Amino acid sequence: MESISRVWKFGNDIDTDLIIPARFLNVSDQNELAKKCFIDVKPDFAGSIQNGDVIIAGSNFGCGSSREHAPWSIKAAGIKVVIAKSFARIFYRNAFNIGLPILESMDAWELFEEGDQIEVDLSAGKIMNKANGKQTMANPIPDFMMNIIQAGGLVQYIKNKDRL
Amino acid sequence: MPMTITEKILAAHAGLDTVKPGDLIDVKVDMALANDITAPLAIRVFDELGVKTVFDREKIALIQDHFVPNKDIASAQQTKIMTEFARLYGIKYYFDLGDSGIEHVLLPEKGIVVSGDLVIGADSHTCTYGALGAFSTGMGSTDLGVTFGTGRTWLKVPETIKFVYEGTLGHWVSGKDLILFTLGKIGVEGAVYKTMEFAGKVIRNLSMDQRFTMTNMAVEGGAKNGIIEPDDITKSYLSEHTNKQYTFFKSDPDASYEKILTINTNEIEPQVALPHSPDNVKGISELDNIKIDQVFIGSCTNGRIEDLQIAAKVLKGQKVAKGIRLIVLPSTPLVYKEALQKGIIETLLDAGAVLGPPSCGPCLGGHLGILAQGEKAVSTTNRNFIGRMGHPESEVYLASPAIAAASAILGKIGSPDDI
Ligand code: SF4
Which of B38, B41, B387 faces A21 most closely, judged by CB atoms? Predict the structure, then answer.
């Protein structure tokens, strides 16, 4: 049976302090980080998300600090993919490096309400609202980033290139 | 092909004659740094790589600054990971308590990063070193961990927006006000993925300390790097701080820019970024009776000697208002010592300030001055996101050291001219 993915919606300029406040950065254990994901804005987030859920956000998602703890906490909390109108630079790079899939789409935000069921075809970039069948296509992932994903993250990509 | 300073530094490190915006390049790194929050993750990645040793023990800097002196057991465990790694690989620039200060003040001060360098750091404010005419940018721990092994990284050559500051600077107006004003104009997404190049007569007359303040906050506009062409002021800074070889790169006069924005500084008054975004900026005269609970002077933005000097000038012979907490953290041991020698520490103590050790402290809500629910603070730092300095319902107003010091005396946000 196909698992059900629900949408969690966020606005513009979601910064890394909102994703995981600095006071929780004294550890680097992923499961601990996951428990604190979005704790100040949506205190029930970590407790109620189901594996495979999706975040849909506005522009400049992940702005602020370079803390990789932010994408880690989202990934470890069980989020399958983050879709945003745009991403902040460091977050974008970090997400690919650690293997958290992200998609850029200007239209997705309008197509969904919080809690809607969603279907995402990552390789094709297809995003569909299961309630009304409306769909849109995300921006294609640049080839270079695709290579990193296909290798399974930056570490493996570098190992494969056998540069060491 | 004409190039900007950023393009020239990138080309030189990629071993290419020219690069243009959009090119993906593989570059060699002159310095790779991480701190007590990001280093443990980077070290884990380095271990996964399975290489025998680091690429160069003299091109890695590990700095304890965020939660030091260790605020709890968990942070003590993190710094221990750094210490062990540094010992194992003989990392030359490892800074433990006593030698350590805030990374982006410490590395230029010790002459470890110089003009023309390509620097990456697992900290977003790594962009600070652009004030020296270096290319420097923040990345995540995975990127850093890989670079610890390979000495290289990949970059996409950014477009450059040039900001030309012309005019004179008004009373109490500093580099902090210029960058806040600029962020207010372009917004927090105004320079995403791009270079912010600061130029013009006003910048040429700005001290190094104030230049660092400006490039420090380039990331608040979303930029990949901020940069200032080096000149005689840079040269004299370097002659005091380093023996390393450096290279001055300059933008060609006909280099191409995505945009050139000219900013007339004559009309700029001291600026304040209101909660909860660094681009939510107003002139000081537009603010009316905002009562505060705390003032923080410090951080990689404004914790340098000139910042403390300005604060002391305002606070001399004055008292911090009753019920207001003024916390000052000199950003490095050397800044602390100079402040002591110049009598600044005494002036601050006499006024009722509390002095703490070199540390990021409350800048990121770590420790040494956390805000309670509903409290308001004026801070010389760079971010005022929700919950940045404590409770999610506290508020942070970003300003210069002059405004911060004056606000501590007034008990509300104001300028030294209001005292
Ligand atoms: S002082 Fe603040 S902004 Fe600077 S490195 Fe420390 S936490 Fe980051």
Answer: B387
